[in-house]
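Troubleshooting log. The previous run stalled partway through. Resubmitting the same two chains, unchanged.
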Amino acid sequence: MKTHLQEHPLHPMPAARPLPAAERAAVLEVVARLGDKPGALLPVLHGVQEALGWVPPGAVSLIAAGLNLSRAEVHGVVSFYHWFRGEKPGRQVLQLCRAEACQALGAAALERHVKHRLGVDFHQTTADGRYTLQPVYCLGNCACGPSLMIDEELHGRVSAAAFDALVGEGA
Amino acid sequence: MSGTRLYVPRDASALSLGAEAVARAIAAEADRRGAAVELVRNGSRGLLWLEPMVEVETPAGRVAYGPVRAQDVPGLFEAGFLGGGRHALALGPTAEIPYLKRQERLTFARVGITDPLSLEDYIAHGGYRGLRRALEAAPAEVVKTVLDSGLRGRGGAAFPTGIKWQTVLKTESAQKYVVCNADEGDSGTFSDRMLMEGDPFLLIEGMSIAGVAAGATQGYIYLRCEYPHAHRALNAAIATAYERGCLGADILGSGRRFDLEVRLGAGAYICGEETSLLESLEGKRGQVRFRPPLPAVKGLFGQPTVLNNVISFASVPLILDRGAEFYRDYGMGRSRGTLPFQLAGNIRHGGLVEKAFGLTLRELLYDYGGGSLSGRPIRAVQVGGPLGAYIPASGFDTPLDYEAFAAIGGMIGHGGLVAFDDTVDMAAQARFAMEFCAVESCGKCTPCRIGSTRGVEVIDRLVAGQQPEKQEALLRDLCETMTHGSLCALGGLTPGPVLSALNHFPEDFKPHAKAAA
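Second attempt completed without errors. Output:
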């Protein structure tokens, strides 16, 4: 199987340090499990992000070797899609909807409140490492906005007060 | 021993309003009182302002209560709701609620009624009759039925579904594919999500029929990753369908093969465009392809591919079961059948309304929607997602028909309506349309990639009052270039919301509008 991959580490690319053994094993497991699917790269990247919470730069060369792709191809796909994270997130990912239906119910004001309350901008992680704030363009909850999703839990009709209650003392 | 049957939706919108806590509270309270209840987690009926809406099965039929909060549950038991007792939240017999009663539910006939993950329920409510018909008929007959029904692509482009199928059928190839576009990225739309969560077997059956008709043995559902609830529902339904011989090497004992797999997108709006969706399924950056060749000729992995939206596939089983004429009899002009409209944004009674084409925007907004949620006048409605035009009140009497909307410079798209009240700043909405295009552009063509960024800048200068006549002329010229010079609908249609805002609400683009506000 694909346990002895010929890996070509990225040089020079200081961020792409070799992965710690446990993370490397997790990436290899995903590649072995999903790598034979037709068009496997997205399923593999989802698998890696599910296992590690992000797609570390050090995983790119490993995935490339496993799928017989160039590192550029893998990096290009990781960076194309908003969902894949090249930076380690906080313990929870908070996706705040910015799309029109939520705008019609005050999403812009909620966005200001959320950023102020958490002390971060989009794509940043709170100082305590609890939340990473992400913009999202539609959660499909358009009749019950403004909406946000914390990990996989969807919340509708989120007012500033409801948001404060949701994040509690953690923020 | 099953006890009184209760329905608490597991639809994502219902969950977002606390349905899980309600279900838990009901189970706990029933336990405490020693009452025998059977909880069914159904899809949503689509009356989303009443969610979480709990239904009780009584000898006289199902009765509804809503919106129910967890703290209301003890009171409901106290009022005898297990027998349909009176309570402040009682809504009466579900089927008699006017919002629901006046609809023409063809595609959504089962959603909210059945247990979405029960194949028995699905079959008991008419499921798999369409596929059986399709398996008995010649592929060309199946395609002809779909053609004759007048069904047009429900994803937005409204291209006749039967023509796509016919092209795939006629194209010789050892391997063909069926791909479902479940990348429902348009704001204001949620019918795909509701259907996948509320009746996933219907999509599976529709895609299986497409496979039989076009000679394809492998299907993929390309689902946006923002829909984890739909992902779980589809995977559970697909697993059951395999176990029960509805998918796999011998579907319904016919000796025909059809395999189906869900693939997740990764947050790129552009992947709702069919050619970039195919690129993404192949594991690449979701960049738009040149057309021709059409996906029906050279699609996934270069093979002929039937590529339709969720609602298009979900419309097919009924068409096969009841015949092309039955479906065709609904609608007006060249817009045949029904469309599940979605009322969203600043609207009092938001939700899903499946109706035949031909009703007006005003009927949807006021008769169904009940006006704005804020109680202020509705000033503009964006129809058809972020690339759809903003319609002012003067356009509310336009019938919802593909051609009638095109005639006023709009589009019905996927049937989503986003209402805005009079506090909306239309210049800000126009700017957002350009900003969104800049964020989501795949980058392949210049008018979209660069034009959208320049569009944001020009609107900023226009609103700031820097040589406004010149900026407006520049913005119109830029929109012209984007419309005609972009490779796909993202760059090509972004001028729709921008220009409709500028044309119908020019006062919002004047610098003094900002100063006054």
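Takeaways: The two ends of chain A are 46 Å apart (CA to CA). Residues 94 and 133 of chain A are 5 Å apart (CA to CA).
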